[in-house]
Amino acid sequence: MNNSNKKKILITGTAGFIGFHLANRLLTRGDQVVGLDSINDYYDVNVKYDRLAYAGIKKEDITYGKAAQSHKHPNYRFVQMQLEDREGLQQLFAEEQFDAVVNLAAQAGVRYSIENPYAYLDSNLVGFLNILENCRHHKVGHLAFASSSSVYGLNEKMPLSTHDNVDHPISLYAATKKSNELMAHTYSHLYGLPATGLRFFTVYGPWGRPDMALFLFTEAILKGEPIKVFNYGKMIRDFTYIDDIVEGVVRVIDNPPQGNAEWSGAEPDPASSPAPYKVYNIGNQNPVQLMDFISAIEETLGKEAEKQMLPMQPGDVAATKADVSDLVEDLGYKPATPVREGINKFLEWYQAYFKVESGVVGE
């Protein structure tokens, strides 16, 4: 792939939060984008259809397995399809011949994985294998794929580094994401497939997921309902604004890994390989206390939250902080949006999207 040329890129998960934003960003710079999403009902599907509609994909044009053309972007088509659909994916890859693939589709959620384990195996393991196989057979130039900060599990050394081992996940979701990294490395080693894993740290912003803290807190505060504050508020998160995540992903897409010539099997580095494989953290590197995060929402809304203080939930960790030194060194990029600025942008969107009474936000 030549960095200066426009690419044909498959983005899976384009009805999702990050995929929606990434597709719009790539379309703005002139790439051809084919979006793919199963549009499952893990959370409100209306949010997913509205994201697609914002990008010009009308709900009535969506038929499973067939490409719907965007009415807004001539270079954007969308296909509703499950990653587990082996034949459908094979046909899509054969017809399109993608330059790059960004796999963001997955069954998300740490807590949901405790209740619905098989959903994670189907989408995150079987589905990811189908992506790898098609990238291999159709000579895709670069596979970038979503991993997660949750892979760090029981690791406590801060900041969390891609160069440390992550062999103690504490949720099945995290285990599937770690498995994706291992599977991708295998394909890089065996078939020379350039692959980059992206460990995202607590992504938030406009069009965010309704199951995430910022969305849940905002909704509850505006309705006068209590918010659930886990671990009695003693949580620290590396909240990362969506535009910062997208900028990191775009830079990764344009720079396929070449392989680390200095890699040593005697002292193996988990973040790289002699094969064309690399793992990056994408995080703000400025973690915020959960109670400070809540205070920022309260101040912007002009309304105090009723707080239900609860113990830590299974699968959760107390703190995250990303080491992004490789992102800075290799790609010249460091996420930098301050949390208050990001929260304000989210709340502006939320007010407009849900037609909250004028003047509530920012009073």
Low-confidence stretches: 358-363
Q: Roughly how much helix do the residues carry, as a percent range?
A: 25-40%
Terminal-residue CA separation:
49 Å
Mean pLDDT: 93
Gross morphology is globular
Structural class: alpha/beta
Strand order of the largest sheet: 3-4-2-1-5-6-7-12
In DSSP terms (H or I, runs of 4 or more residues), the helix count works out at 11
What does this 3D model show about the protein?
By secondary structure, the chain is α/β, with parallel strands linked by helices. The protein is 37% helix and 15% strand. The chain is built from eleven helices and 14 strands. β6, α6 and β7 form a beta-alpha-beta unit.
Main traits of this protein?
363 residues, 37% helix, 11 helices, 14 strands, disordered C terminus, two-stranded parallel ribbon, eight-stranded mixed sheet, globular, alpha/beta
